[in-house]
Amino acid sequence: MTKQRYFFTVLILGALTALGPFSIDMYLPGFPAIAKSLHTTTAEVSLSLSSFFVGLAAGQLLYGPLLDKYGRKKPLYFGLSLYLVASVGCFFATSIETLIIIRFVQAIGSCAAGVASMAMVRDIFPLEENAKIFALLILILGASPMLAPTIGGYVTVIWGWHEIFVILGIMAFLILLSVIFFLPESYKPDPNYSLKPAPIINSFLTVIKEPQFYTYALTGAFSFAGLFVYVSASPIVFMEVFKVSAKTYGWIFASLSIGFIGSSQVNNLLLKKYKSEQIIRVSLSIQVVTSLLFVIGSWYNWYGLGGTISMIFIMLCCIGISNPNASALSLAPFEKNAGTASALLGAMQLGLGATATFGIGMLNTHSSVPMSLIMEVSAFIALLILFFGSRQIVNRIEVSSNAAAGMAH
After folding, report:
1. What confidence tens digit (pLDDT) does each residue in 131-185 have?
2. pLDDT tens digit string along 348-362?
3. Quick check: 332 and 130 in contact, CB under 8 A?
4. pLDDT for 41
5. Is residue 366 predicted with pLDDT exceeding 80?
6. CA dist., res. 332 & res. 279, Å (int)
7. What is the largest CA-CA distance in the chain?
8. With pLDDT > 90 as the criterion, what percentage of the chain qualifies?
9. Helix 96-124 and helix 42-70, axial crossing angle in degrees, nearest 10
10. Is 78 exposed, middle or buried (0-12, 13-18, 19+ CB in 10 A)?
11. Do 261 and 142 touch, CB atoms closer than 8 A?
């Protein structure tokens, strides 16, 4: 692959990966305006974010088998087209119930982009480069938390929250054109792949029974849930608790994203000296300790605006380092079922993220305690899974080695 082709392929895959996050981050500054317009509360508006996460999680399981049967591009065409239609529906929404439902449909469309991009990384690039490519995708994805909330804040103030969905629709249309004309098909359609329930379930079971998959997929999913909690709770914490404006919130969100983006690129340097397994173990340990300090400080009101931003920044750095490694290690055992594996991985991440954000919406307390507490619990569970799952992986390797030695004798 030429350098130019390599660059454009990574750029398009990055744009596909960023569509979902852009759909999340851009309308966050508009939460108070949406609440006022639709005669509801900010906490109830956050349920439209939760429904988006649920749609992303459900869509992962839908697109996984489709990507393995029809190739990568046809399901992409369908998903991006559905996203465009749903964006129009969001623009015309007149009640919070309608917005919640249509955001779910929009998520079903957008997750085709995320699942396909992960599977195509496994298709196109050598296995040893996967962690590096995932880190590059995070760099492109980083444009979302840096640009989206800032743009969304200004759009909300100047034109109104409805126009945010116009911009998202235009983005999806441009990505669709790029996929059609510039992105190669990376996987030959498999006419023998059955879409009947039993074979699909068996395919998912084959993936999930692999110790390396369920260990790193669940570890990454629980760790990554902290990011979803932050995204869901941040409009409440910053705009209602600390009383910052929509524009200021956009700049805070963009500044905090530097931790997530920058740490993902530091990961590339760490990979030159350390194994992915080592990096995940250390970053998760730091995430657990920092989250605990955040819980204690939030409970006793130790942190003002600056302290809260600092604690979140450290946790986002930890997530940015561990996530590319967890994704690469969980998908490494698969070649034939890469689409199914990436779909299951995404469903775990988004399903746990949606569950965590529902907690934020239901608690509806005007403090940072719920956010910090849920972030601590998710990080601690991730560390426990990594500890016990690593033992399962070692046992699996030892059993395989013993069996091979026995056959040799």
Report:
1. 778 777 876 776 676 788 888 988 998 999 999 999 999 999 999 999 998 888 8
2. 887 887 787 776 666
3. yes
4. 85
5. no
6. 17
7. 76
8. 31
9. 40
10. middle
11. yes
The DSSP result for 2-17, as a single string, is -HHHHHHHHHHHHHHH
Distance CA 281, CA 318 (A): 10
Query: Looking at this protein, which amino acid is placed at residue 319?
Result: I
Residue 312: pLDDT band (50, 70, 90) is: very high
Across 305-344, b (16+ Cβ under 10 Å) vs e yields eeebbebbbbbbbbbbbbbbbbbbbbbbebeebbbbbbbb
Domains and CATH numbers, the chain: 3-183+197-392 (1.20.1250.20)
Q: Which amino acid is at 263?
A: S
Helices (H) and strands (E) in the chain, counts: 15, 0
> Two tokens at 14?
């990055």
Asked whether the beta carbons of 382 and 348 are under 8 A apart, the reply is: no
Contact 389, 216 (CB under 8 A): yes
C-alpha angle with apex 310: 305 to 316, nearest 5 degrees?
Answer: 125
How many angstroms separate the CA atoms of 368 and 29, rounded? 18
Contact (CB, 8 A) for 294 and 379: no
Average pLDDT, the chain: 85
d(CA 198, CA 196): 6
